UniProtKB/TrEMBL annotation:
Entry protein name: homocysteine desulfhydrase
Source organism, top-level taxon: Bacteria
Keyword NADP on entry: no
GO biological process entries: cysteine biosynthetic process via cystathionine; transsulfuration
UniProt entry keywords in alphabetical sequence: Aminotransferase, Pyridoxal phosphate, Transferase
Catalyzed reaction equations: L-homocysteine + H2O = 2-oxobutanoate + hydrogen sulfide + NH4(+) + H(+); L-methionine + H2O = methanethiol + 2-oxobutanoate + NH4(+)
Family from the record: Belongs to the trans-sulfuration enzymes family.
Co-factor requirement: pyridoxal 5'-phosphate
Originating organism: Nonomuraea phyllanthi
InterPro entries named among the record's database cross-references: Cys/Met-Metab_PyrdxlP-dep_enz (IPR000277), PyrdxlP-dep_Trfase (IPR015424), PyrdxlP-dep_Trfase_major (IPR015421), PyrdxlP-dep_Trfase_small (IPR015422)
Record region (Disordered): 1-28
Protein EC: 4.4.1.2
Pfam families: Cys_Met_Meta_PP (PF01053)
UniProt GO MF annotations: cystathionine gamma-lyase activity; homocysteine desulfhydrase activity; methionine gamma-lyase activity; pyridoxal phosphate binding; transaminase activity
Length: 410
């Protein structure tokens, strides 16, 4: 094979990249592709910066960038323009100072827990928790010797009584999964702040549209962006939003070591989904109201768990704290587990699938899926029975949804 010769045609010097490529052989030019700058206009949609790293002209600037969360972009594990756009969008929605996007909701939760806890520390968590979070806390107890005390989500006095000198975190959920209990965020976060304890709130079910925990005193808010923020069942992601830049900086240094970083394409999908969040949440909530009322009147159902119902234990608090009651509900079937299994195999429009927050309605059996890692005692403590069914209500026509659920109940 003969050696390729440098191109001799005069380069177009109207763009810096043309100058840089002057005299290069074809094999080199196909590697170093032009990157035109956008001048005089701007893209309407945030572009996907699908690159693992960024190049520098000054070594000192690069060295400085690698130690700062707010510096120039340097490496994809640190952040990326598309990822930072998502971080800024969610931080703005939540009223936070800064955010860290991650590869999953559990990535966000683990980044916060592992970044702020060490062996010998004590964690206070609300009793009713998402199964993945509960499993992670159990792992922290067994693996790192971190102590945990569970308290009701609406009892600041119990939080104060449980606090120890080594207590570092209080962990809450705005709306609990799957029993939809609403945490007393003003009371619980105020108690934590009085004691010098960092408060963390999972706001996935409510989103920043229905509730902004930082406004009620929370220090950190976490989300699974997989759910309502992205909203179309096509991405897995998470994010942690921080009320203070100082706390963000502390956790960010651990986050880049942990490596649970968000992917630019997943961040872009989440950004695209967020643009219709307000429209979708309005329909999720109205559909949930429609179904909750009808389920409560059905003879096969012994209880419905949705904070918009006057019979729900969190109804009064939810009315004060939330601008809407959410799109997730659960209900208990009078026939127990056999009835639950029959119901799951009988739905036709709703999908038997994990996750929530997408445009389609999903159903699952928490005891054997989302909360399968919990013992029988832990399930009982969370109020989850053998006949409990969770419904993540989508945006379909409510009468079509009710026809499907009522047919399965029959």
């Amino acid at each position: 094979m003969t050696e390729s010769r440098p191109e001799t045609s005069r380069p177009d010097t109207s763009h810096p990249e043309a100058v840089r490529s002057e005299g290069l052989r074809p094999e080199t030019r196909v590697v170093h592709v032009p990157q035109p700058a956008v001048e005089g206009s701007r893209p309407i949609a945030m572009p996907i910066y699908q690159t693992s790293g960024f190049a520098f002209d000054d070594p000192a600037v690069m060295a400085d960038a690698m130690g700062r969360s707010d510096g120039p972009f340097v490496y994809g594990r640190y952040t990326n323009p598309t990822v930072r756009s998502l971080e800024q969008a969610v931080a703005g929605l939540e009223g936070g100072a800064a955010a860290i996007a991650t590869g999953s909701g559990m990535g966000a939760i683990n980044t916060v827990l592992l970044g702020l806890l060490k062996p010998g520390d004590h964690l206070i968590a609300q009793t009713s928790l998402y199964g993945g979070t509960a499993a992670m806390i159990n792992d922290l107890v067994g693996r790192f010797g971190i102590a945990v005390t569970y308290v009701p989500e609406n009892d600041p006095a119990a939080l104060r009584a449980a606090a120890r000198p080594e207590t570092r975190l209080v962990y809450l959920e705005t709306i609990s999964n799957p029993m939809t209990l609403v945490a007393d965020l003003p009371g619980m976060c105020a108690a934590a702040r009085e004691l010098g304890i960092v408060s963390v709130v999972d706001n996935t079910f409510a989103t920043g549209l229905l509730c902004r925990p930082i406004e009620h005193g929370a220090d950190i808010v976490v989300h699974s962006t997989t759910k309502y923020l992205s909203g179309h069942t096509d991405v897995v992601g998470g994010i942690a939003v921080f009320a203070s830049a100082e706390l963000h900086e502390k956790v960010w240094h651990f986050a880049i070591e942990l490596g649970a970083s968000a992917d630019p394409f997943a961040a872009w999908l989440s950004l695209r989904g967020m643009q219709t969040l307000a429209l979708r949440m309005e329909r999720h909530c109205s559909n949930a109201r429609h179904l909750a009322g009808r389920l409560a009147a059905h003879p096969a159902v012994s209880a419905v768990h949705w904070p918009g119902l006057p019979s729900h234990p969190s109804h009064e608090l939810a009315g004060k704290l939330l601008s809407g009651f959410g799109g997730v509900l659960s209900f208990d079937l009078a026939g127990g587990r056999p009835a639950g299994e029959k119901f799951m195999s009988s739905v036709r429009l709703a999908l038997l699938a994990p996750s929530l927050g997408g445009v389609e309605t999903l159903v699952l059996h928490p005891a054997t899926t989302s909360h399968r890692s919990l013992s029988a005692d832990e399930l009982a403590r969370n109020g989850i029975g053998e006949g409990t069914v969770r419904v993540a209500v989508g945006i379909e026509h409510p009468e079509d949804l009710w026809a499907d659920l009522s047919g399965a109940l029959a």
